[in-house]
Structure formats: C-alpha cells, structure tokens
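Page 47, continued from p. 46.
Same chain as before, 207 aa.
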Amino acid sequence: MNNKYATSYLDALFCFLMVFVVITSLIKHTTTPQEAAHKPNAIYEIVLTWEGNADLDMWVQDPQGRKIGFSRREGGDGSLCSLNRDSLGASRTEADSQGQVVNKTCEEICTIRGFIPGEFIVNVHSYNINDSAVPLKVKVKLIRVKPYAEVVVEEHEFSRTGEEITFFRFTLANDNNQVTISDINRLPTSILNQGNDQQNEGVAPQP
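Result:
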C-alpha cells in the first residue's frame, strides 16, 4: 500500500472513531437500579406497599381536583397522573397458577408524568382487610425518578375495613425550570367523598 492510500485509510478510520466516540457520549447514561425499575416518562411516583391479603386502594387527587384510583386509573381529561398498578392482596395478585403466593408484598404505583402546579393529596382506603392481621402496617413513598430520591416516606396502621387515611400532601412548583416539591404536610381530608367513588372490586366494602 502506497503512502497516498495509507493516509486516506487512516483518515477515514480516524473519522469513524471520532463519530463513534461522539455518538457514544450522547447516548451514554448511567442508570441506577432504582431508576431502571420505574417508567422513563415519569417525573415522580407515589408507591404504596403492604403485606398480606388485605385489599387496599391508593387514591391521589391532583391540583385540578381530578381523582386517580382503581376505578379511574387515568384521572380523566387533561390528567398527567395514572395508576400503573392495582393490587388486590397477595393471594390474588401475587399468586402463581397453582395459587401459591410468590410475593407477600403488595404494591400500587401512581405516576406523575408532567408538571401540574399545585397541591396533591395522597390517601389510602382500606377496601377490605377482614382476612388480615390487624393492625396492618402500610407504607407510602413519594419518589423522584431522576435522579432517584425518596422525598417522603410515611407509615400508618389500619385497624378495620373502610378507613381512609391521608398519608401526606405536597405541592409541585417550577423553580428555574426544575419541578420541585414544597409544602409537605399531613392535613387529613377525604378524597372518596363519603364513598361516592367506591366501585365493586369483587369484595363488598363493610361499613
């Protein structure tokens, strides 16, 4: 190979390597295990967890008054929140084809996909806990997806079917084009409005 062709070959190889480096740097992103477990289009997630066969429901009310729960998972027109997972208790949602419970921890996840300024209310309703040991310990987390952070972690105990507990309230604000959380409080309020939003999940709620 003469010098002319050798120089052209090296130039082409060098250009190829430069393009490869630039593309790699643009698409490279270090994802933590926590981030990998969550939906990529979410900015915040609200995660409810408990153990056993109780049937609990998480209800979230957005700043526009839209209610997100098992009977209205998308929250209606204009909603940027959705219930991505509804659990009916370990024996029904975490059992294999033979009826064996494979995961004792039940989980419900509500995703906030965009900026909605104002206050969110996060409640949990004990739809049915008759088959569970009481008091039933329940945890709710408010999670920032990227970078991953547990912003709020709140725990409560349920003692009977039909209880509705406000775990926390928080406000979304836009601070220098960054969505931030402020004004976290635990002022109790009802989202279900005396049961108007309860629908049959296969277990009749008790008074």
